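R.M. (postdoc): so does anyone remember the format we settled on? I'll just put the C-alpha cells first.
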C-alpha cells in the first residue's frame, strides 16, 4: 500500500468515526503523535491524513492546539416538484448541450462547474492505470482484432457478478457490452420506438437521453418528478391512459440531475404500471454504484421477471469516462439489441474491457467505490454549504443520495442561460436548467458538480457564480 493510499485510508477512518459520533462536533481529534501510535504510521502520513480531513470540511486546525471537528452543513430547502407540460414534446436544446460536451478540457476552455465528470485523481484508480499500461506495453495479439459482438466474456461475467449488489440475477450471456452507457440508452430507444412515438421521462431528465429522442424523431412526455421520491406515479398513470407511450425511461437510483434514489416500493409500483400498460422500462443505472448508503439500493430490474426492464449502465461515472465501457441487459430484447449494436458500432474496444474486468475481479472496484462515495458525500455537504452561503436567498438545493451532481432551483427571476453568458467572460460555465427539459423549462435552475476536491479556487468560483446569479435577477 502506498503512502498516498495510507493517508487516504486514515482520513476515511477518522471521517467514519465523526459520522458515528465517536468524535462529536467541537471535540478535539487525536494528536498527530497519538494517531501515529494508534495506526503505526509516520508523522508525515498523519499530517497528510489531517490535511485531507480539512479538505473534506470535517475538521479544522487550531494553532498549537490540534484539530477539531467542524459542524455539518445546515439543512436546506429542496427543489419543488417539477411541473412540466402535460403533452408530448419534441426535444430541443442541442446548442446548450453542445456547449457542455463539444470539446474536452484545455487551456482555452472555461472551468466547467456543471459537467458530469467524476473525480479522476482518486488514488484508488491507480491499479486501473497500471492494468491499462500493462495491456498497452505488452498487448495480447487477440486484443488487436475484433472481440465478441456481445463483449469480452470475462467482463460480462464480472458485470453479472456486480449486478447482485443491486438485487439483479443476470446471466453473463444476457449482458451486451456497449461503447459507454450512452450507446446502451440509444440501443434501447431505437429498439422500442419509431419516429413520432412517445417516451415517458422523468423531469428534469438527463440531457444525453433527451438528445437520443431528438435524433430519432421521438417525443418526450415529461412526468412531474419529486426531489425525494422521483417520478410521480399518479401523473405517469394518467399519461399512460391518455397517450400511446412506447417506453418509460428513468434514472431511479442516484438520479441525474436531482440526486434522489426512488424508494423500493415506488420502483415496484412503477414496474407494475409498466406491466399493466404493457410498456418497457429503460432503467439508466449509471450512477447506482455511487449510492452513499450500503447496501446500494436495488434496481427496478431486480423485480422484473418478464424481461420488461432494459438495464443500462457502465463505468463512465464510477471510474473513467474515457474508457467508454458500458453495458445493457436488454431482457426479452437481447437479439434485437445485438443487431442494433452491430449496425451502430460493432464490437467494442477490447483492451478497456479487459482492464475493467481485471480491476473488478481483483477487488479494486469495490474498494474504489467505498473510498470515492465517502469522498463524494463529504464534498456534497461542503458544496451545499457554499451554495447556501453565496447564492441568492431562496435558492433551493437538492440532497443527493449518491453520485456527484447537485441541482439548484434559484429564484424565478434568475435566468441561468443568461448567467452562463456572463460567466463566460470569467472562464466559468455551469449546466443551465433548460438542457434537462424537452421544452426548455427550468431556466431558473442549474446543475453543479462536486467531484472536484474542495479548494480555495473552487470556493472562489462557486462564490462568483452566486454573485453573478444575484446580478441576473430581474429585468435586463
Amino acid at each position: 500500500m502506498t503512502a498516498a493510499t495510507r493517508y487516504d485510508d486514515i482520513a476515511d477512518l477518522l471521517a467514519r468515526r465523526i459520522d458515528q459520533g465517536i468524535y462529536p462536533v467541537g471535540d478535539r481529534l487525536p494528536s498527530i503523535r497519538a494517531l501515529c501510535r494508534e495506526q503505526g504510521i509516520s508523522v508525515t502520513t498523519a499530517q497528510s491524513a489531517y490535511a485531507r480531513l480539512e479538505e473534506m470540511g470535517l475538521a479544522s486546525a487550531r494553532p498549537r492546539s490540534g484539530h477539531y471537528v467542524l459542524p455539518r452543513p445546515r439543512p436546506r430547502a429542496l427543489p419543488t416538484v417539477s411541473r412540466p407540460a402535460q403533452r408530448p414534446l419534441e426535444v430541443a436544446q442541442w446548442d446548450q448541450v453542445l456547449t457542455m460536451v463539444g470539446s474536452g478540457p484545455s487551456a482555452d476552455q472555461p472551468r466547467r462547474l456543471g459537467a458530469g465528470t467524476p473525480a479522476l485523481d482518486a488514488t484508488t484508480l491507480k491499479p486501473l492505470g497500471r492494468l491499462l499500461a500493462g495491456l498497452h506495453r505488452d498487448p495480447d495479439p487477440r486484443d488487436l482484432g475484433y472481440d465478441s459482438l456481445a463483449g469480452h466474456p470475462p467482463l460480462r461475467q464480472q458485470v453479472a457478478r456486480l449486478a447482485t449488489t443491486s438485487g439483479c440475477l443476470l446471466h453473463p450471456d444476457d449482458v451486451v457490452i456497449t461503447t459507454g452507457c450512452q450507446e446502451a440508452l440509444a440501443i434501447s430507444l431505437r429498439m422500442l420506438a419509431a419516429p413520432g412515438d412517445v417516451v415517458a421521462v422523468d423531469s428534469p431528465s438527463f440531457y444525453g437521453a433527451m438528445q437520443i429522442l431528438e435524433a430519432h424523431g421521438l417525443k418526450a412526455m415529461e412526468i412531474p418528478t419529486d426531489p425525494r421520491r422521483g417520478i410521480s406515479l399518479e401523473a405517469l398513470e394518467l399519461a399512460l391512459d391518455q397517450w400511446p407511450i412506447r417506453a418509460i425511461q428513468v434514472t431511479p437510483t442516484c438520479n441525474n440531475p436531482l440526486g434522489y434514489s426512488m424508494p423500493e416500493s415506488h420502483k415496484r409500483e412503477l414496474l407494475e404500471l409498466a406491466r399493466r400498460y404493457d410498456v418497457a422500462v429503460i432503467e439508466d443505472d449509471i450512477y447506482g454504484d455511487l449510492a452513499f448508503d450500503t447496501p446500494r439500493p436495488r434496481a427496478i430490474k431486480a423485480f422484473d421477471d418478464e424481461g420488461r426492464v432494459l438495464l443500462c449502465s457502465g463505468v463512465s461515472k464510477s471510474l473513467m469516462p474515457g474508457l467508454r465501457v458500458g453495458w445493457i441487459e436488454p431482457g426479452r430484447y437481447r437479439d434485437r439489441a445485438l443487431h442494433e449494436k452491430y449496425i451502430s458500432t460493432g464490437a467494442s474496444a477490447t483492451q478497456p474491457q479487459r482492464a475493467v474486468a481485471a480491476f473488478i475481479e481483483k477487488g479494486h472496484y469495490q474498494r474504489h467505490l467505498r473510498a470515492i462515495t465517502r469522498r463524494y458525500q463529504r464534498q456534497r455537504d461542503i458544496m451545499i454549504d457554499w451554495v447556501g452561503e453565496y447564492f441568492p436567498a431562496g435558492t433551493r438545493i437538492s440532497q443527493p443520495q449518491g453520485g456527484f451532481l447537485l441541482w439548484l432551483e434559484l429564484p424565478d427571476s434568475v435566468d441561468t442561460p443568461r448567467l452562463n453568458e456572463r460567466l463566460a467572460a470569467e472562464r466559468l460555465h455551469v449546466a443551465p436548467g433548460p438542457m434537462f427539459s424537452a421544452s426548455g423549462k427550468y431556466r431558473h435552475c442549474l446543475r453543479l458538480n462536486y467531484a472536484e476536491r474542495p479548494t480555495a479556487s473552487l470556493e472562489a468560483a462557486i462564490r462568483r457564480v452566486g454573485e453573478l446569479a444575484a446580478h441576473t435577477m430581474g429585468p435586463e
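R.M.: ...and that's the designed sequence above, right after the C-alpha cells. Also worth knowing: The mean pLDDT is 91. Residues 184 and 224 are 25 Å apart (CA to CA).
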